[in-house]
Amino acid sequence: MDYVPLPKTGRLWKGKVDFFRPFKGGAAAGDSGDHITPLYDPQLHRQHDDEPNLKNLNVALAALIDIFPDIEPEVFREMLLSVSEESRVEIVTEQLLKRDAKWIRGRYRAPDATRQEKLATPTPSASSGLAVEEAFRSESYKKAVKQVCYQEFRSLSHSSIRAVLAEHNHSYTLSRPVLLQLTTKSWRFTLSNFLTRRSTSGPAAEHPYIVRHSGQCVDNPTPAVKRTGNADLDHEIWMLLVQPESHRQQQEQLKADRSLANQLAESEAEEAGALFDCECCYSSVNFEQMAFCDVDLHQLCHDCVRRTITEALYGQGWARTADLDKNALRCFAMEDCQGCIPRASTHLALSRNEDGKAAWEEFQARLTNDALIKSGIRLQRCPFCTYAEADEIPTLTLRDWRNFWAQVARNSPPLVQFTFVLLLVCMTLFTAPLLILAMTTWVLVHFYPPAGSILDESWTRVYKKRQGPKFKCGNPHCLKTSCVRCSALWRDPHTCFETEKTSLRTAIESSATAAVKRTCPRCMLSFVKSSGCNKLVCNCGYTMCYICRQEVTSREGYAHFCQHFRPNGGRCSECERCDLYGDEDEEAAIREAVGVAERAWRDKEHGQVDAQTTELMVEALVGGSSIKQIATQDRWPKPLESAVQENDPEDLLENLRLLSLALEQLDHDKERWWYSPEKKEQRRRLEGEGQDGKIVELQKINNAATAMVEGMQAKLGLFVKWSLGMNGGIWQLEQGGKVKV
């Protein structure tokens, strides 16, 4: 008996509409696609939804960064938003030149130490060095970043997340590490992590916008990014979290496939008896693992090729391994052979290893370098990589007078020809001495060698001066601009032989300021706390906690902070709330940031500064018990020492003012001595005589004087810090949490 569907008990359908209602509902549910998660495809063309005024703002911001490269982009963003659209670049430039202290407030950025490692690719709205993290953000991007951070960091309050985003220009790449650090300090994260046993093995673990789909590989699913509503943020999350893991999976898959292919090829060759013996290690390998020289066809395995190149690069076998004439690897068989292994075979042997690409590039770079040295060509090298260009001076040649006469006779109108002949006849008396001088010079140059060498040196000096000292590297992996004279990284405005202490102090001060700086998420005002409680009230009325950056509402008030009595101080054992008067151990945070900045500066600049100078800079920033000990050294005047010991603010400030005026006068005298007419004439005379060594000695004397003045200014900054607070150029906080300048 066939099964007949019976109607449900209850209301029966009464018409056509009731009969087709289930089908319409199913179709609507199928078309809605609620169960389908839209994923981001990085291969599709990414369109930037810039707002109407956003592109113009980014173009103006890029221009200002090129004009003032030593100022933080945050200053330009604040100023551009506060001026009208007409001539905004000119207005901001004029304000910075006239009243720079009012707008900058100590926000100088260090030279390219760690900034380039953090920043991403340039923004499409500007063709200069403006990075995405420094540019103006669209409202859709800000909204999408907030939603992603709200879902990813559920243990943090929304006000804390908004404060961190405001500090980092709403950049997800820069804000995520800070939010992760804040999350680990939250008791809610510890409790939820213990109960749910979350996996924190990788950066993309448990991310709400990272999904894994099997695709073609079921055992190893590939991560993908769910769309957030903004294409720029989708691409940023993909580059930050998905792309490294996808690349690692691809490399592991390629390695496994290559290993399996080699095993199958070796087994098939062994069964067929088609193995070849290497004439270096005498091992039997298949044909795919062999390389042959181009003379006697010696058989060499890929393992021996890789070991030989490694020994040549990092050992003592370069002279007998590399053939500079053929720019290839010599045959290293047991028999004496004058052949070489083709470049394609060498590249194939190295490409089958994990570090083969780097070894191949280094091998080619060293071959090219030795070939250039052997050629004897005058080179201009990049101080940061192996790139070099031929530094050839064009030959000084005179134009042929017959070509000039043919140009006048053929292509000029008759009136011009008649005028030229008339002037030539009339100027005979004046041109005769010039012709005699030119003929005498020509005879001396061709028949008297010293005169020719003097003319060549003069022409070389003129050509070098017209060419300029800036050198742009053509290596696509470097692309740095350096100075030909001092071999330093070019930064506008550039000064040759710039003292290393200046760049180190700038890097340390910038890192220390960023470690303790807070930003109001409502009005984007940056500040640090010098004293008072941790309940901070901004000028705009926004109240936040200095420790966790969370918003403190009027309803919550001081209940946000710990209310338990602790007779011995220290951390509270009864709750996890923030301390009202406790600090976040700013000294440790500053020292850690300064250590990272110093190491990055040494790696990038290859600078050498004594430990005493570095310790003095650190103590000037973090303070401590050793400040008075450093401040009361014997080299300081007696009145200043007594003012420090007696803790008299008025006398101390008066001494600081007098010392500042003395340092300014000393720096003015040094500059007047260096740019005096006598010293300019001396440097010009030495440059004309080609005595570069004496010019360098004069420059060293000037650098020593500059270092002395800067060292005294560092001492002055130490006293200013000790008496006026952490950083006098940034907004300070007084008792009660009110903001003041």
UniProtKB/TrEMBL annotation:
Q: Which UniProt keywords apply?
A: Membrane, Metal-binding, Repeat, Transferase, Transmembrane, Transmembrane helix, Ubl conjugation pathway, Zinc, Zinc-finger
The record places domain RING-type at 274-576
The terms under GO molecular function for this entry are: transferase activity; zinc ion binding
Q: Does the keyword Transport apply?
A: no
UniProt cross-references to SUPFAM superfamilies, sorted A to Z: RING/U-box
Give a yes or no for keyword Secreted in this entry: no
Pathway assigned to this chain's UniProt record: Protein modification; protein ubiquitination
Q: Where are the transmembrane segments?
A: 420-445
For this entry, the protein name equals: RING-type domain-containing protein
Organism field: Hortaea werneckii (Black yeast)
